[in-house]
Specification:
12 helices; 35% helix; alpha/beta; single chain; globular; 7-stranded parallel beta sheet; 343 residues; 5-stranded parallel beta sheet
């Protein structure tokens, strides 16, 4: 979509940045805008009260994890020109509401050039290794100064590991980090193999030990799996895809890592699998509700889950690269040029 703004080149662009969950991001964006001599004002919105947004009259809304619906858009005012995500996820945007107002919506794809995919993959591997090598019990043994040399754990080598979404940017980065551990890899993607066989072969170095299947083969792929890493985008097709049957088709004592979106995993099924011990552990960077509720049932399983607060992609390197992409669109908006990465 080509969007012609009413902004003058001498007017400061006003950006409402909903920063409650990612407080380090907006100062980085502000510094990037200043470096590029883009006149701007940023309102860091951290409260549910929208009165400050109403008074600010933003040209651009950066939602992060905030729901952007009629309430927010009405409060922001008719001078809003676009919705620009500071990253990939747009599941919080009410597209019906933006379409009614003719507002373009753009994001920053999880491209290797932005460093986000590498950062996410590092955290996925961190969770997986902490689970498999039982970091939390090992730390307890260390702090107690007893049971030295315990626990005895297992290795990833020769283990069957399934990656959901292996051909997206994050999935590729995860696969690339898993392969040196000598795993037997199965990738489960949305496209049939006939459409992506060359991509898959290039990713796994042509090895026939690693298999790709489309979503219709997910249950069979998970059968007897030692671990599953979720890197699939949340959509109507993937919502709740890892249900009870899927989780319990994995081997008893297996592991789940989710760095994608909480909704890809059916939560009651996850809780049941953890309670029964069918899942020996789960590594979670994303959750069904964010911020994480104080009384969430997952808190009963802190001994067997590793947790991070949606920080897999939050590094200075990725935030600065994303800021540059956002700056590109701010310049496009100011000069009436086509916007990048509209969806």
């Amino acid at each position: 979509m080509v969007h012609h703004s009413t902004l003058g080149t001498s007017e400061a662009i006003r950006i409402a940045f909903f920063e409650g969950l990612f407080p380090s991001a907006w100062p980085i964006l502000g510094a990037a805008l200043t470096r590029r001599n883009i006149q701007h004002r940023i309102l860091a919105v951290s409260r549910e009260d929208l009165s400050e947004v109403r008074d600010f009259k933003p040209h651009v809304i950066i939602p992060t994890m905030r729901r952007v619906n009629d309430e927010v858009l009405d409060a922001a005012g008719s001078q809003v020109l676009m919705i620009q995500q500071y990253g990939v996820g747009l599941e919080g945007v009410d597209f019906a509401a933006t379409r009614r107002r003719g507002l373009p919506v753009a994001n920053v794809p999880s491209d290797p050039a932005y460093g986000n995919a590498a950062a996410v993959a590092e955290v996925a591997m961190m969770h997986l290794l902490m689970l498999v090598r039982q970091y939390q019990p090992a730390r307890k043994s260390f702090l107690a100064r007893k049971n030295w040399g315990d626990p005895c754990t297992t290795s990833l080598t020769n283990k069957k590991v399934v990656v959901l979404g292996p051909l997206g940017a994050c999935g590729r980065a995860i696969v690339g980090r898993l392969l040196p551990f000598g795993v037997k890899l199965i990738g489960v993607g949305r496209r049939p193999l006939s459409e992506c066989s060359e991509e898959w072969d290039a990713l796994v170095g042509g090895s026939k030990s690693h298999v790709y299947v489309d979503g219709t083969g997910m249950r069979e792929a998970l059968r007897g799996a030692f671990a599953c890493v979720v890197a699939a985008v949340l959509s109507e097709d993937t919502k709740g895809a890892l249900d009870r049957d899927a989780l319990f088709s994995m081997q008893k004592g297996s592991y789940l890592v989710n760095i994608a979106r909480g909704g890809v995993v059916d939560k009651p099924a996850l809780l049941e699998a953890l309670k029964s011990g069918h899942l020996a552990g789960a590594g979670l960077d994303v959750y069904h509700v964010e911020p994480f509720p104080e009384n969430d049932d997952l808190l009963d399983y802190l001994d067997v889950i590793t947790t991070t607060p949606h920080t897999a992609g939050v590094t200075f390197e990725s935030a600065e690269a994303i800021a540059e992409s956002v700056c590109d669109n701010m310049e496009n908006l100011i000069h009436g040029r086509p916007l990048q990465n509209t969806v």
